[in-house]
Amino acid sequence: DIQMTQSPSSMSASLGDRVTITCQASQDIGNNLIWFQQKPGKSPRPMIYYATNLANGVPSRFSGSRSGSDYSLTISSLESEDMADYHCLQYKQYPLTFGSGTKLEIK
Amino acid sequence: EVQLQQSGAELVKPGASVKLSCKTSGYTFSNYYMSWLKQMPGQNIEWIGNIYGGNGGTGYNQKFKGKATLTVDKSSSTAYMDLSSLTSEDSAVYFCARGGSFDYWGQGVMVTVSS
User: Fold this and answer.
1) What are the pLDDT digits (tens) for A44-88?
2) Which of A19, A26, A36, B112 could join A3 in a cystine, given CB atoms 3.0 to 4.6 angstroms apart?
3) Chain A environment of B44 (Cβ under 8 Å)
4) Residue B108: which of A43, A94, A95 has the nearest Cβ?
């Protein structure tokens, strides 16, 4: 199985900060990665498709990038509504596998 | 409007089975896969498997083979997941999610395994 190593597991940032969350893939997954946002008690919401493409309706402060086997989700200027858990998912190979998640809190 | 409506919370005894449903509307059911996922409290999400709405073809995470059985009823545009021989390790929230893009999700259903 492909392992997705996500970091950090949790973080606290101030409003307006630039925030970056990373997933590292244990094997080549190309750009076959989705980033999700999940708020408490809710279902995950796709934010970024194919590693770098913004999903419909997602604010432009969110972006995705790739450097080799490292995939990043960046929030350029943190807003209060961004407090949530974030997950990455690789869909290059079965079984599909998620990162361990990042809990983002607002200072 | 695409909707995935999951059945209600379940409290089941160890060793028992439970059947979860995911009733869909707003799109052509037979044109999409449906995935099922597991999320234990405070833990990461696990992909259980998927099923194609058109012919019921399935793919499973090896970890869940023998535990989960996926089926569909095209006439009602509903996907089902049977969980068998339940233990405390099966207590979790279970989601259905559409297609390879996971663009639409059910609201999740809490399954609690307890005597």
Assistant:
1) 999 999 999 999 999 999 999 999 999 999 999 999 999 999 999
2) A26
3) 87, 98-101
4) A43
CA distance B114 to B6: 21
Distance of residue B54 Cα from the nearest chain A Cα, in angstroms: 20
The distance from CA A27 to its chain's CA centroid, rounded to whole angstroms, is 18
**For residue B3, what are its two tokens?**
């909707």
What distance in Å separates the CA atoms of residue B99 and residue B50, rounded to the nearest whole number?
Answer: 9
Q: What is the pLDDT of residues B37-61, one digit of tens each?
A: 999 988 889 999 999 999 999 999 9
Q: How far lies B48's CA from each of A63, A82, B99, in Å? A: 28, 28, 14
Structure tokens at B103: 């663009």
- Per DSSP, the three-state class of B85 is coil
Residues 3-32 of chain B whose Cβ lies under 8 A from any Cβ of chain A: none
- Partners of B60 in beta bridges: B49
